Amino acid sequence: MSANFLLDCQDLREKRREKRGGEQGGNGPGQLGGEAAQRAGDRVSGESKRPTVRLPTRFGGLPGPRLLVGSLATLVVMAPGVPGELQAAYREPLRGGRGAVAADHELASRAGAEILARGGNAVDAAIATALALGVVQPAGSGLGGGGFLVFRRADGTVRVLDFREVAPKQAHANMFVDEKTGQVVPERSRRGGLAVGVPGEAAGFAQALRELGSLPAEQVIAPALRLAKEGFPVGRHLARSAALVVPQLRAGHPLRVLLAPGGAPLKQGEQWRRPELAETLAVLAKDGFAAYYRLEPSAIGDEILHAVAAAGGVLSADDLRSYKPVWRQPLLGRYRGWQVVTAPPPAGGITALETLQILDARPVFAEGPGASSTLHEIVESFKHAFSDRARYHGDPAFDAVPPELGTAAYAKDRAATISREQVLQPTQYGRPQGNTPAQAPRDHGTSHLCVIDKDGNAAALTTTVNLSFGAHVIAGRTGVLLNNQMDDFAAQSNKPNAFGLVGTGANLVAPGKRPASSMSPLLAVAPDGSVLCVGGSGGPTIVTGVVQTVINVVDFRMTVEAAIAAPRVHAQFIPDSVLVEPEIAADVRAGLQRRGHRLVVTPAALETAVQAVFYRPPRAQVDPGATTPIPVADDRPAEPRGFSVAADPRKGGIPALP
């Protein structure tokens, strides 16, 4: 479990106390009610500033949501309880008429908004936002990693770009297994040179900008370059992350030098400059993203190779020369009449789509978002989809994923097995006669961002260096932190890993292979032409967070801010338990337990952070393929025409408008 989120929660509690000014908020656990959420607060100037808010006392019939953190892979609760007054306030979304950007750092959102204001499109702004995240939020993303982009033009054309890292050509299935003991050595895949996959972010940005963008690289890189060169105040998440990792590093370790320049870890509010990364960004601005892979002495690629080799890795010049992003066929489906567009394997979008289409084949929810009947249906659908994900997902170039998993017909078949009143036997989930389940990937160092521009073009981009600060390897004098994406492979077939989970051949290490991912950038298009852009960070909880946000917007007509702040549950088939945040009321939990669910009430925040933008066009643009009208679950109005944007308070995200 990452302690970053617990520390974030403690800091959030302090901020909420300051904003409340002593005001009491929230109801006791176990209370139910029918009121809509209460919102109040004074607006402040500046589009990316959060206003002072009053804590909501109710949420869709439930108490206001608290932020909690728990272990995902093992369901072992390791954090102390979070005080009862800790609550995530939500407000009306930030709204405007000329586009919107949502990221998990305010400065990154502003970088994207700046590009929109200068006439850039959604892809230009998405790349600018991601590059800025790599500067100000290096624990989660950066040029040393890779990810996925889902893009939809206003005319309905959709593209998906896979710039996921790949295993080096000298990688092999047993590279993380001790030759003497035959046991997996987890540290080999998590820290040091062997953990590093071939970085794909720079190549992906070059491809996306060339085919989908409208501005030159120099202009798109400019905001991130300015932040790295001139410096910026350290944010809460970075300060907490640095405080956790620095004590683990030996004196003189390059990452320790970076994160503790004065000897002590970076502190929130401290001004921090990244001159080496600024030089790297300046090279890319001048020569284009292709310069990242150049191999002449002292070039960026050469620095990467030397750093990985010195850390015991096997990355080669040929790996850098041959890396190519992949345009993939978008996954398309339907949910309640909305078209769903997401990224196929090795991304996790197929798990999100399968879940939504199973629910779509079920009757519409009879009760509200916090009811045990609603949560039971959602959890059972998760278990079907994660069962299939565990058994089959990997790089489709190596192991074909059964094509029916993303179809409505298959989802209907799985939906028919769900009982309203009880859980199924473990063998009844997922595709019949499946193979041994595999581990869920661990993308904890991830960042997601959403951009929709003034013309209605939408970009959902998720990028990662995997675990916090990746492999803890800095690429020489470039300032680039390299990923530890090799940890997303199954380290050994059919034997438990460090988390007690087993893996199969579909996600074993192989040269040139891309590891399975939970990243689920997703777009949903309503029958009237409205577009919801959503995605998240947080390993397997990316999928469950994204799905619940879609459900909250589509089924329950929540604003994007309320949809993101709502309490969540998480289930992933293995382990056979359901994580629930403590604001799920006692009688609701009892209803889930009566149906056979094994609940773990987490005392700290689920490791996920969702970002979302909602665009409602000036005039309805009826989708000719729509089959179902938009459901209305209560009397709250739909989002107004224009742009509504929100970022998850769990990670301190703040959106921006151009």
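That was protein one. Protein two is written in the same sequence-then-structure order:
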Amino acid sequence: MFSVIVYGRNDSHGYNLHKRAAISFNAIAEVMSDPDDEILFVDYNTPDDHPTFPEAIQDTLTDKAKQVLRIFRVRPEQHVHLKSKTHLVALESQSRNIALRRSNPRNRWILYTNTDMLLVPRREGESLSMIFGDLPDGFYQIPRFELPEMLWEAAFDRRDPAGNLTKLRDWAVRFHLNQVVHNFMPMKYDALGDFQAALREDMFTIHGFDEDMLLGWHCDSNLAARLALYRGRVDTLIDKVFGYHCDHTRVAAVNNKGRLTKMNDQDRFIWDVSSPYLPSQADTWGWPDVQIEEIRLDRDTSYERFVAGLSAAMEPATEPYRSTNLDWHLYSDLTYDLHHTLPFVCDQVLTYPRSTAVMLVASRAELVSSFTKAWSAMGFTGSVLIPSECKGLPEAHPSIKTGAFSDLVGMADLFIFEFGLASQTQRETVRLGRSASPSDTKSLNTVARLFALAASIEPETRPKGRRLPRRFIGVNVIYNKFWPLFTDHIVANINPFCSQVLAGIPRRDASLKGKVLRFRGRIGV
């Protein structure tokens, strides 16, 4: 019957975003009753190494919300062409159009709202689907009623949408919450962007939201102006549904700088609008030719993929724990527990696109074998690129592509460099202070040389069309001989030793170009 379109990213926009969004998702799903109803969330420009916003809060969502929620992930690389034109990290018009293009064509209505709204049918027991099912063609708004922060923050249970809606019906009367704020036409009400219902067919006809609006604010007013021209009037659903906004003004959002706030031009985008159509974007609105990832929370989740990957690569442990050591004299010790470390490596890559190609430069053949099994089982379709300079590594897996480093480096979307002992097998318990064999030394020098080269020439070797730096993951590079090399070249956090993994992007420091730490001699004492 209807598609709800909202957008955002995995950040802390406004105040207590995670709670108010969970409240909203669950409440909107609660008033859906048609099998075609859906909530479309566009996750715009969340960093690649983060999950999407709904994935980050999925434990607070009801089963129904997960079932109706479709997530469209717009990657930073897909936003970068607009970065110089806006101060915003998430763009409203682009987000809403991307969802509109990909909405369920069986749904007659599109409802634009935001991730802090609760919609309460005035007749108890009635759903929004029932309301939309009986609605004549038109363009509809409702007023927004404010809900004080103390009420939604302290008294709402995220996972009890029915109870929350019942409380709202009581509070609305007891606390005099319902105040209608009228506005200049075509903005029938103040804050009209929290409920605008339009026919899906109408939205396609007028070419969606105006994607020239890159400075924030007034995108909803522009839509109202254009739909009012197209339909000839603006109608209301105040007799059928009330809308409550979880107020979050304790902390200013990134796009709210008071009187200094940058806004789209009101004259151009509201008062001077003379046509509902946008012919300049007729063929491009909503990015029809861009591949946008879709993520679900009711199936094939990131957790399920993660578990599938690790299960394919290793068996459960047979002892309660293993031990290692941080003693200073073990600084040159490069033994490590591969199976303990592999989950942390997989955790670093899981949020990247499934088409990602990863270059794996390693010493230990068992790491390559285990990681490649996990990579495939996690659903990645991109290649695992193994430089031929690294000797003695497996090549038989279908995901593996081998070749000279110079031929492969321009294909990689992501890098993993592993500094371990080729002579250490997984069956072998970590032996603190063990010596390196000549083959270990040779392998480690190859990894070090290729790492420093890849980091120093990263901008020049990015895949065609890629503009953002690629991520480098270091395995077994914490508190040992290769820690200075990795952190000299890569901007990385100081992580706990137990994870064995560091990650970041290359430093832009010309003095590091070609700098390689030569590894010689004996490991350990």
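The domain at 300-512 is CATH 3.40.50 (Rossmann fold). Keep this in mind for the problem set.
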